[in-house]
Write a structure and sequence with these properties.
Blueprint (H helix, E strand, L loop, with lengths): L2 H18 L9 E10 L7 H15 L4 E4 L14 E8 L1 H15 L20 E5 L19 E8 L3 H11 L6
Antiparallel strand pairs: 1-3, 1-5, 2-3, 4-5
Helix pairs in contact: 1-4
Length: 179
């Protein structure tokens, strides 16, 4: 099993039950899925950029990304409907916990000028969003092989929690939030 999943079952879940006073173990908030997405606006000019970004995203997550397409045409951006403009991966189960472990212990400490994650980045339903400015913070990506430096968005979907409960859960997982 994944290291963070074992920690969730053994330490985090009992601690959350005690601190928030849940009557049932199923009422404790848990991470349902993690969505990693990369929007590539320059893909309208050069299709090769999207292929390189999809390859990098597959190396980071360990799963093949699906290509996202434009929903409508925007002439100011030279964008047509159904044009490929990004890619995303939805992680669940063991891969999700392994990705979260690598994100917390390896990738976030490698961010330049990092001062902590924003505790206000929750959406009101307990889900957390964060952006990374470059994909090279992950050790799977070799800087020499990167053709295009691209940012990514990481969304952590948490089932059964308010913003405060989700913040406490992610802090117990080791996410470095600002005080």
């Amino acid at each position: 099993m994944a290291r963070l999943l074992d920690r969730y079952i053994a330490e985090i879940r009992p601690s959350m039950m005690e601190s928030f006073g849940y009557g049932n173990i199923m009422a404790v908030p848990r991470i349902e899925k993690i969505i990693v997405s990369m929007g590539v606006g320059r893909a309208t000019e050069n299709r090769k950029i999207l292929d390189a970004v999809a390859k990098d995203l597959a190396m980071v997550t360990g799963q093949k990304p699906c290509v996202t397409r434009a929903k409508k045409s925007v002439s100011g951006f030279k964008l047509r409907e159904e044009m490929p403009i990004g890619c995303k991966v939805t992680l669940r189960g063991k891969r999700m916990y392994e990705f979260l472990d690598r994100l917390v212990s390896i990738a976030i400490p490698r961010i330049r000028d990092f001062r902590g994650l924003d505790p206000d980045a929750f959406d009101g339903r307990g889900n957390f969003n964060m952006g990374l400015t470059e994909q090279i913070v992950f050790p799977e990506i070799h800087i020499d092989d990167v053709e295009f430096v691209q940012g990514m968005n990481v969304t952590v979907v948490i089932r059964g929690g308010s913003d405060e409960e989700s913040l406490a859960l992610l802090r117990m997982f080791g996410m470095p939030f600002r005080r």
